[in-house]
Amino acid sequence: MSSEFDRVANRDEAGAVRVENLSHSFGDVAVLDGVDLAVDPGEFVALVGPNGAGKTTLLRLLNGVLEPDSGTVTLGGTSTAALSAKAVSRQVATVPQDTHIGFSFTVEQLVEMGRTPHRSRLDWTSDTDPIERALERTETAQFRDRTVDELSGGQRQRVLLARALAQEAPTLLLDEPTASLDINHQVQMLSLVEELVDEGKAALAAIHDLDLAARYCDRLLLLSDGEIRARGSPEDVLADESLSAAFGTKTAVTQNPATGTPTVAAFTERPPADGNVHIAGGGESSVRALRTLWQAGFDVSIGPVPEGDTTATLADQLDCPAVTAPPFSPVSGKNREAAIALARAADVVVLSSGPGSGVVADEATEPRIRARLDESGGAKRATAAMGDGGPEPTATDRVVESEQALLTAVRECVEAVEEGGV
Amino acid sequence: MRIHTRVLCWSAALFGALVCTVLFSARVGPESIDTWTVARATVNTFAYPSGLSIETARAGVWGYGLNLPVPDLSYTQPFDLAVGRTDQIIVQELRLPRIFLGAIVGFSLATAGAVMQGFFRNPMADPSIIGVSSGAAVGAVAVIAFPIAMPFGLQTAAFVGALIAAFGVYLIATENGRTPVATLLLAGLAIQTFLGAVISYLLLYTGDSLEEAVLWLMGHLRWSSWSDVEVTLPIAVGMFVVLLAYARDLNVMLLGEEDAQALGIDVEWTKRILLAGASIITAAGVAVAGIIGFVGLIIPHMMRLLVGPDHRILIPTSALAGATFLVAADTLARAGPAEVPVGIVTAAVGAPFFLFLLRRREVHAL
Predict the structure, then answer these.
(1) CB contact under 8 A, A121 and B263
(2) Shortest Cα distance from A115 to chain B (angstroms)?
(3) According to the model, what pLDDT value does residue A205 have?
């Protein structure tokens, strides 16, 4: 936290947002509690966090819609407490969450309203330059004479951005700018904001899509229960433990192969389920089995799996005990023992068709299920490479070929074990 | 510049329509007078204030009284075109005061209606929505039931009653310096209902004046005088200018209060100005003419269909169209063998028109 302010202290104060120790409550409910943040020109910062974390409230405190209970908001070096509504709106322009605008204002009229902070009350002239620039920048000039309610959601969001640009404020606040857009328009919208930021604007956006936030923003602020729980680069914030806590669910971060930015997967609430399941072997079958069983609420252990295998990564993110072994060599020694110990502790053992399953298959005495969830040649090759093809199924093994069948089989085995009084 | 041009063109056209309606209306009556005579007599009527003296007028209640200083303007009439003496008197003293007052009342109600519909973002809003008309009615009926001797006693009581009611609704709906529009609407409805009970109760005590009270409640321009015009015109024009000055803010307020605040509008202050302006201009109209419905509802609607939602053009065009409409409606009201209160005419014409709009679903697009 202190590093943030050290960094800030060295920067130019103008055109930037500074928030210190900001608190706000609605009645008895504290929505924000001691929030500090800073946004500088040329910086695109995302405010992420679960619904109800206080993201929108924070933006409302920044643009003057709400007055803070305590703490200060400083815009361009001046505290908002000393600024009129008009002066604040010359410092920050807000792109509201796309709400239905039920009035037949034309696009041009709506964008013109962005000039409100720059005009005196009786001045009805339209200083067309900023309006034209805003229309062109957002590529909305072609529908300037259409009414706003004729536009699609994506177009309307661009018009709202144009209105904010017409304000000619150094800072942009965006409240869920992509919430109602399809994936193509989401990317368009944020690319446009990214360009504006490169041209010198400061932007703070409440974005609930963590992947998009990570892809476009320089920094992430994780807001949860009215406090900033993590801040920093997208990689750091998404990997932070507080992320799972904030969203109340397990999350897993991987790299998006197309964009090279971190991508987050959230898992839905797991139902409680009794039973320990051990999965032996890696590969596609194993990943699917792990995902299915973990999601169903079972305690799952893994091993052996090749190091760096997708199963190993997933098990790590799900906090499942796992035994890994170097790939392309036989599993031996400590790893072998550990994997067998895990298998013995489990109620059911699931053998994948992937590499490493044979080690456990020979030793485990528990009910065994053979998961053949993928029939691609890749798994077979990998199996061979690990020096372990896995034995042929014995008569007592159950063979399942779908996630649903696997789940049913595991449940039946677990019940049988419990009834057997083991 | 485009908005200026549009405002000027529309206003000029509507002003032309108003002038024609006034001239036509001044022809109509038991004594039919031809258009050119009416036009000349109207020009002759034109007067400008040329002197001011203070006179005393006696005001009193139940025999107690005091002398109040009252400003008295003297006027100069610069024109003297050839018009028969009788015709000049009929036009100048009987017809024109009533026509002018009708125009001012229509102007006021339509202005207030345009503002209120924008303010409440509700096409069903009309000037009386925050209890202005009910308050005026209480004041007026109270004075009719318990007369006081005072110049403009009835009008003053109605005006004051209107403002007290509006301010009361505002106070009830305001909490911590904020006045949510929905609360205002509901408080207005509740106060209107309550004041309706008060009016009915007061009507029991009007005795021989019951007819006068009922007539006032229906809205009429029968006893219009130039002095009514003198008092009402400055209030109407003054408030119109104030409201027009806030036309752009009102446009931005249509986007929602949060957006408006983010665009630099001081929302609560603007709401206060708009409410006060609309209430005062409505009160001025209602005080001299009684409760005339539907002008403030229909006219802004119709103009919105024609000129769009921009209040910079909607307010002036609604005002002029409202003036024209009420003059025409009042002409109809007094054209028949027996005069009917103009409020009946506006409602009878306005309600079907509103239903027509409703069927065409135009009313949904504010």
Answers:
(1) no
(2) 8
(3) 94
